Each structure stands twice: as structure tokens, then as C-alpha cells.
């Protein structure tokens, strides 16, 4: 696993590579949204488990979702309360989302802004990225560079001494048209 600087990692993403960097929860595997298929292959992930679109700030993600004016108000209120943080919102996807992000249900997309300053610095330079936890599908998230290097020798990984997040994945809440359903309880307790 080549350990690289932020500039080299950003260049790698732009060149279509899968990369890994720390977040506020667990280290991420990431790629350009249109290259999401690379993450599915690298992780050996089933196509029915969609990826998360991670952005540096909420404004970077709103073009990827579509809803009514009333829905937008609810979503933006929740985002203002919980982002940056460990909450993924699953919302109706706009036509800007590549089908590779969610191959079996391209009508929705999970979006998140991490609390990690390093992750947001990377995302500010790359734009929103397709992300998931750094691990083989079905196994626990990896938490150290050594573990990531052993499992993913071809992934560009940010050269950093501390990759530790809280070690708990984000909470995933899906918008159901009139309210939220928790798909995965993680670090954040969403008051719904």
C-alpha cells in the first residue's frame, strides 16, 4: 500500500484510483463517484449494498439529491444540527448520481459530511467521493494503516500517524417521504 501525501492522494483520486483516508468514524475507502465500481471490486462488496457520497460541506452534496421544498427544509435542518458528524442521510437521488453508487436502487443516495478535518480537506479538493469503510465486505472495519496495507496493497493511503476515529460507523437514516427510518444505528442518535 503506497502511503502518500494529501496532494498525491488527491491526484490519485482524480486519476481514478481507490484511496483510503481517516474519517471521524472508521477509515474510508474512496473513489470518484463515477468509479464506484472500483470500490465494490476492491472490497468484494455486494452490489445491493450502496456506497455513501461524502462531501466537505453540505452545499457540496445537495445537487445529488432531489425533493420538495418542504423536504429540503427538513433535510437542511437535520444537516445543520448533525453535520459535520457521523450521520448518513439516505435521500432521493438526483440524476447527477452515477448508477454505480447504488446499482440495485439508483433512486436513493446516502450523503454525509464527516467531522474529520483531514477528510474534509481532501474532499474540498476532490469534490464529493464514493466512500465506504476500509475492510473486506462482511468483516469488521480496519482501524490501522498496517491492517489497511495488508488487506489492500494497491490502495493509495494517506501517510499519517493516527488514523483513529471513534471506531463506530455512522448512523444511517433513510427519508421515507414524511419521516426518518434508522437503517443502522451508529455513533449519532437522531432525534426523530
From TrEMBL:
A single GO cellular-component term on record: cytoplasm
GO BP field: regulation of translational fidelity; tRNA processing
Family matches, as InterPro entries: DHBP_synth_RibB-like_a/b_dom, Sua5-like_dom, TC-AMP_synthase_SUA5
Domain YrdC-like: 3-188
Chief location of this protein within or outside the cell: cytoplasm
One annotated GO molecular function: tRNA binding
First-tier enzyme category under EC: transferase
Catalytic activity: L-threonine + hydrogencarbonate + ATP = L-threonylcarbamoyladenylate + diphosphate + H2O
Entry EC number(s): 2.7.7.87
Subcellular localization: Cytoplasm
Family: Belongs to the SUA5 family.
Name of the featured protein: L-threonylcarbamoyladenylate synthase
Amino acid at each position: 500500500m503506497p502511503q502518500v501525501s494529501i496532494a498525491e492522494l488527491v491526484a490519485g483520486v482524480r486519476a481514478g484510483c481507490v484511496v483510503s483516508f481517516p474519517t471521524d468514524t472508521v477509515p474510508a475507502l474512496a473513489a470518484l463517484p463515477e468509479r464506484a465500481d472500483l470500490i465494490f471490486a476492491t472490497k468484494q462488496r455486494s452490489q445491493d449494498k450502496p456506497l455513501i457520497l461524502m462531501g466537505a460541506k453540505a452545499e457540496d452534496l445537495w445537487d445529488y439529491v432531489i425533493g420538495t421544498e418542504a423536504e429540503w427544509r427538513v433535510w437542511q435542518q437535520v444537516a445543520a444540527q448533525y453535520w459535520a458528524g457521523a450521520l448518513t442521510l439516505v435521500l432521493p437521488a438526483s440524476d447527477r448520481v452515477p448508477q454505480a453508487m447504488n446499482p440495485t436502487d439508483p433512486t436513493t443516495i446516502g450523503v454525509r459530511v464527516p467531522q474529520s478535518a483531514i477528510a474534509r480537506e481532501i474532499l474540498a479538493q476532490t469534490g464529493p467521493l464514493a466512500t465506504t469503510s476500509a475492510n473486506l465486505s462482511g468483516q469488521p472495519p480496519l482501524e490501522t494503516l498496517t491492517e489497511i496495507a495488508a488487506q489492500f496493497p494497491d490502495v493509495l493511503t494517506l501517510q499519517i500517524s493516527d488514523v483513529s476515529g471513534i471506531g463506530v460507523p455512522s448512523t444511517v437514516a433513510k427519508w421515507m417521504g414524511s419521516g426518518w427510518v434508522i437503517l443502522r444505528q451508529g455513533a449519532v442518535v437522531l432525534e426523530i
